[in-house]
Amino acid sequence: MDSHHAEAGKAREAFRAVTRDVAWIAEAPKPHKLWLVVLGIALVMFAIGLYSIYVLVTTGIGVWGNSNTVDWAWDITNFVWWIGIGHAGTLISAVLYLTRQSWRTSIARSAEAMTIFAVMCAGLFPLLHTGRPWFAWWMIPHPNDMQMWPQFRSPLMWDVFAVSTYMTTSILFWYMGMVPDLATFRDRCAARGDRLRAIIYGSLSLGWRGSARQWHRYERAYLILAGLATPLVFSVHSVVSFDFATSQLPGWHTTIFPPYFVAGAIYSGFAMVFTLLIPARHLFNLKHIIKDEHVEAACKIMLGTGMMVGLAYATEFFIAWYSGNPFEKFTFINRAFGPFWWSYFLMVGCNVIVPQAFWFKKIRRTPVVIFVLCLLVNVGMWFERFVIIATSLARSFLPAQWSYYSPTRYDVGVFVGTLGLFFTLFLLFFRYAPVIAISEVKGVMPEAHAGKKH
Amino acid sequence: MTEPHTHDASGHDDHGHDGHDHGHGPDHDGHGHDRELPDGKLYGVLAEYDTPGELVEAARKVRDAGFTEFDCYSPFPVHGIDEAMGIKRTILPALVFCGGATGTLGGILLQWWCNAYNWPWNISGKPSWSIPANVPIAFEATILLAVFTSFFGMWILNKLPQVWHPFFRNERFNHVTDDAFLLGIEAGDQRFDAETTPKLLKDAGAIEVSNVHLDPDPESRQMPRWITAFIVASTAFALIPFAIAAKARTSRSSEPHIHIFPDMDFQPKYKSDQPMDLFDDGRENRGEITGTIARGSLNADDLFFRGLENGQWTTGYPTTQLPITEALLKRGKNRFEIYCTPCHGYDGRGMGAIPTRVASEGGAWQARNLVDASNPVAINMPNGQLFNTISNGYSTMMGYAAQIPHADRWAIVLYVRALQRSQNASLEDIPVDHRSAMQMPEAPIK
């Protein structure tokens, strides 16, 4: 009996340790100094973005570098880039859940948060590109005295539905997963006598009691949401790729786009997750929860998706030759050797060559190197979208239409602003919310089976 | 063991204790942390177990003893506990299926009604209803409604949010979200007994068993009033815009409508006939500069363009431009029937559709009789004057220069002449071999 109690005591101590190691971040009376510094930088970036958006909205999108030839440029590049980043969050939380990859539990929460913040940033760009963002509600079908309905057969309308469904689903999935952990925060705040936080976390946790009957329905709902989010995440980036694939422009008009875009999305999203988590787990002492094995597994996924993206680049070139279409052929030769050659080689360098380093276990186990490689992949994936969008438009059918694209300070400003918004939200999330799915981590610990008869 | 477990509610009953601040009269003396509240009715017993495995075993025993009003509490879903407790599978998946199916049908119906039925879109002549192009939105609608059903359905089935629960008064219960494994049996269960039930739990391996009593103050078991007030008030405020919209749609107003975004309605530009400071004459519309003629508007030929010959109405015809042919005459008939018959009638006697209508309303107005031999005004007009009348109008007749090109006006002149001749024809005008056909007795002409 004593040995049994000792074992039980150890198990409980292990559970308590998980709670403590996650909760201390939110409970620390003062935030980490580095956290404050980074938050300050992020807020400055966000302020730059707000100013750029102010100028943009009050003047018109003429302040951007977009022209009659290159009418989609940084705005849509950023939109696709951010949406793609968001997809890794859903992949980690839903797809890896369905495939029972228990290593996902440590990173799922922050990856989902990243999804939501990335989709918020993404949504800004088409909204601003309309020029009159206050009329965005015209895209929602509603009875009106103009007797007009949205054109539901337009891929841009599909975008509206896909992205807003994705945003809604991501928020609900994230919040639902967080409720048991918010209840943990509630109980800890209540025990400390911190009334204000107990009320806030208490309201957010909806009175969660952790009862078996509640867990039963909760788990079922979680499984269903994961099952729904999985086809959704594939559909969203496919729909985003339809914006291009259904047009007639060489370089856009290809059937390979949906799988190619989805692979690229997951690739860039994983890179972003680890751009955020490698410093965070170091800063907040989470290395024993977000373990080296987890980072390694993610490196392997990046290696795989990176090669899928590389295969897509090669396939596009092959088809350009094999189709015998002179416009298609010209577009791809122009992509690699035309005026935007530098962006093409940045893309191939960062997306195809850089991830080859992940073949080596030593690199997969060296966080600093992984962090740098992830940054490069982020850059490469941004350039992939830029290459697709800008170079195809800058050299379309008629030479009279040809032009070159250069961004203005407001293009840069809005993009920097979304980066600021993203990091601000992520930092706030990391300080005030349960950054790790506490209940899920406990559920996959060996101690979760303590005292069971086998 | 069965001793009442008294403690201060604040600190671990974060929902309930808000209620303490409201609705309490001065009869309560303060809410100090160390003040012990008297306990109310027994709500149930809570037993704590060391490990998840023991909790499962205890749950099995409690169920085997016939209890139904009991539940297990753990920091994470414990494997095997559903079966041990005999929890029936939730109906949530069936609800989600219904939600998803509603989404599919709703998505398809929405698109069909908007784009194919209520206001069909013609895009390059493609069919206004084609399923493949409507799949993405139907799919997204399916996912959206299924997600809503599973999210909200789960909370509703779990009876959450719930702001208050008696078990939160127990100190150990607040560790359920950390490291504690508890089993609670409610006193409302038919088999509950204040003596034997705690013993059963203890025998199942509980390390501690305690009674949980209701808070004697019924206020604490309700939603705090300020929350209720907030929900009611915010719901009411949220409905105001809809109420305004509903009122606007069902009533009339003589006020000009509100321009929320005026920049499209009032654009910084000049419209025709608006005053403008830039020019001396203060007009925005710039007239033609004297002496300039637009390309193709020289119209130098007086005969063809104005019907004049040496300053007089011509009696001739611009045969240079328009050789007189049967085709020209037919063109004139066609144009006459489009532009002239509404007033002058098909026979030119001035009783077209409009005068007929005026007569039927009891009025008296007639267009010029173009073929009247007894008052031959139109018959005696030179060709040039007829042309001019068509071009510039006469009396109540407006000019047709803007609608009928010059050549067509001349074609109409030709046809009017033919009408005047045919409407006043005698037998001698008919070719000899056709005359017999006309000598039929009294054929009424209508």
Description of the structure:
The complex is a heterodimer of chains A (about 450) and B (about 450). Chain A has helices at about 1-25, 35-60, 75-100, 105-130, 155-190, 195-205, 210-245, 255-285, 290-320, 325-335, 340-355, 360-365, 365-395, 410-430, 440-445. Chain A has about 450 residues and is mainly alpha-helical. In chain A, helix 3 crosses helix 13 (about 365-395) and helix 5 runs antiparallel to helix 6 (about 195-205). The longest helix of chain A has about 40 residues, at about 155-190. Chain A is globular. Chain B is α+β, with helices and mostly antiparallel strands and about 450 residues long. In chain B, a hairpin with a 2-residue loop joins strand 7 and strand 8. In chain B, helix 3 (about 90-120) runs antiparallel to helix 4 (about 130-155). The termini of chain B are far apart. Mean pLDDT of chain B is about 85; it is low at about 1-35.
Q: What keyword list fits this structure?
A:
heterodimer, A: 454 residues, mainly alpha, 15 helices, 0% strand, globular, B: 446 residues, alpha+beta, two-stranded antiparallel sheet, 7% strand, elongated, disordered N terminus
